[in-house]
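Morning!

This is the sequence you dropped in the shared folder:
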Amino acid sequence: MKLFKTVVLTAALSVIFNGFAGAGQTGAPAGRPAVPVTITSDTMEADKGRGVVVFKGNVAAVEDFTLCADELTVNYGVGSEVTDIAATGNVRIFQNGRTARSDSAVYKRLERTIALSGRSQVEQCSDTVKGERITVYLDDNNAFVEGSGGQRVNAVITPGKKCGQLNSQTN
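The structure's back. Tokens below.
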């Protein structure tokens, strides 16, 4: 049933927004393959006039990482290309052995950044970084962490760790 929902949602979006899951997508940065964003959820509401699609309930978006949340808003730009994805409620992101959690997040597709906010945390191997806001640079394997209102950044870095082989996607 989950596969059926994925296929139906991908097909529906292709019809609503030309090129959403098409091979001719040009929203990827130079040198990166254009890959579709596949989203599953309990419900979907599209507003073609505003270039917005809202997914609600057990949402999972997969590109070359997995983003899960209670709600996802996908915004489109010129040529119906995905420009950004805003996630709210119980946000979890998985990529290359990293796990991120926050109250909300915004993925900027062309910049390949994810800005986490609200009780943000990134874990890799046995290391953990926490802050109010964390910006993850997906292609550079880097992050920038900020505190807020007296909350300082907290990092726990384990010496001599043995992480083993990192998976390309971990759920």
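Headline: The two ends are 19 Å apart (CA to CA).

More detail when I'm at my desk.
O.
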